[in-house]
Amino acid sequence: MTAVARLILQDFRSYRSLDLPVEARIVALTGENGAGKTNVLEALSLFTPGRGLRRAELADMASQDGTGGFAASITLAGEGARLGIGLSEPDAEGRRSRMARIDGAAVGSALAFSEYLRIVWLTPDSDGLFRASAGERRRFLDRLVLAVDPGHATRSNALERALRSRNRILEETPGQAQWLDAVEREIAELGVAVAAARAETVARLSAIIAESRDAASPFPQAELALSGDIDRLVAELPALDAEEAYRSRLRQNRPRDRAAGRTLVGPQASDLQVRHVQKNIAAEFGSTGEQKALLIGLVLAHARLVAAMSGLSPLVLLDEIAAHLDPRRRAALYEDLLALGCQIWMTGADPTLFAELPGAAQRFTVTAGAVRTAA
To answer: Which residue, 119, 28, 36, is CA-closest to 74?
Structure first.
């Protein structure tokens, strides 16, 4: 089991200095709102490609009382690998750089950490996911893909750059057909790759959900589907044919996209559709409690998928997960978390919410800038 045995923070958010040894598989952090519980989870979430669970800029993570840089490191249980990430002190010209290290040796990015651990999380920001914009659901889906396919971030970022380039050419020099042909070829290749990775993750996740179906579970079964022109192309055609069809669509849509100021067809226009299987309704029409339960069930299934595909039991970060669950769902959640075989980090303002956790769980109390073993 992949687990964090020690977390060290320096000038990160509300923590000027933190050295937290961890021994348990389940970690519960409690404290008042604003004490810094989520900051601990955010620090852990940086050890995966992307911008962490708050999607913040690195500069915003540095302590306001520090010099503008920060450092975070974790030591993994067992093999004892030490992973570090941070923002450097300014150089002579005032520039800062992102740092990533494994056992003290510099690595190119957090992508290298994927050989050692995978991380999944759920925060209150996702509670309204099913009623949010399609863009929010795409970001959620891409995070699911990233946990099983770390290269997805590189492809997605390259696609975003290529789309910006095409939009700029259409706006400034629309007559440059050769430039457009070249960038559209790149967009087609990357777009089909991104869409295919999403489709594979959705298919595998759907299979995991179907296999673990339990009519007695308080977490309803979710049915997943992708909606978008490129998703239909990827589903119906071999990859090379899908690329050619997408490239042709981009060429045909140049006048329309120029008028819109953006590229209207592609992975950037897809949506993740979720249905409540037992009630046979779209997820957005469920009650607030049903939507929360659907989301929890989805994330638990994803954790199982990550373990199955990567061979690494993921670190599971759950921010304020139990706050709005009734006792039945809370008890079921803890039972399911134990069955995952992963290290779980949870936060909550009310310590009584974690009273039903097993005795082996490690409980900490968080106050401003400090984390202490709970009394």
So the answer is: 119
Q: Which residue has the tokens 């669970």?
A: 53
Amino acid in the structure at residue 178: Q
Q: Which residues contact 374 (CB under 8 A, 6 or more apart)?
A: 28, 30, 351, 363, 364, 365
| CA–CA dist 173, 85 (Å, integer) | 41
* pLDDT tens string 77-121: 987 899 999 998 777 777 788 899 999 999 999 999 999 999 999
| 316 φ/ψ angles, rounded to the nearest 5 degrees | -110, 120
Please state the domain extents for the chain: 131-289
- The per-residue pLDDT for range 245-254, each reduced to its tens digit, is 999 999 999 9
For position 223, what pLDDT does the model report? Answer: 96
Whether the predicted model's global pTM rises above the 0.90 cut: yes
Starting at the edge strand found earlier in the chain, the sheet holding 222-227 runs: 222-227, 271-276, 281-282
Residue of 16, 46, 14 lying closest to 31 (CA atoms): 14
Closest CA to 144 of 77, 54, 186, 204: 204
Question: Other CB atoms closer than 10 Å to residue 37's CB: what's the count?
Answer: 26
Helix, strand and coil content of the chain, in percent to the nearest 5, comes to 45, 20, 35
**pLDDT tens across 342-353, in order?**
999 999 999 999
CATH class of 131-289: mainly alpha
Taking the C-alpha atoms of residue 103 and residue 7, their distance in angstroms, rounded to an integer, is: 14
The reported pLDDT for the residue numbered 91 is 73
| Residue spans of beta strands (DSSP E) within the chain | 4-12, 15-21, 26-30, 70-76, 82-87, 98-102, 105-106, 119-122, 222-227, 271-276, 281-282, 315-318, 344-348, 362-367, 370-373
Question: How many helices (DSSP H) and strands (DSSP E) are in the chain?
Answer: 10, 15
Q: What is the DSSP letter of 261?
A: T
HSE, side-chain direction, 13 A CA sphere, residue 340: 32
Residue type, 53: L
For residues 314-338, one letter each, b for 16 or more C-beta atoms within 10 angstroms of the residue's C-beta and e for the rest, the string is bbbbbbbbbeebeeebbebbbebbb
Please count the residues of the chain. Answer: 375
3-state DSSP assignment of residue 102: strand
Q: Is 250 exposed, middle or buried (0-12, 13-18, 19+ CB in 10 A)?
A: buried
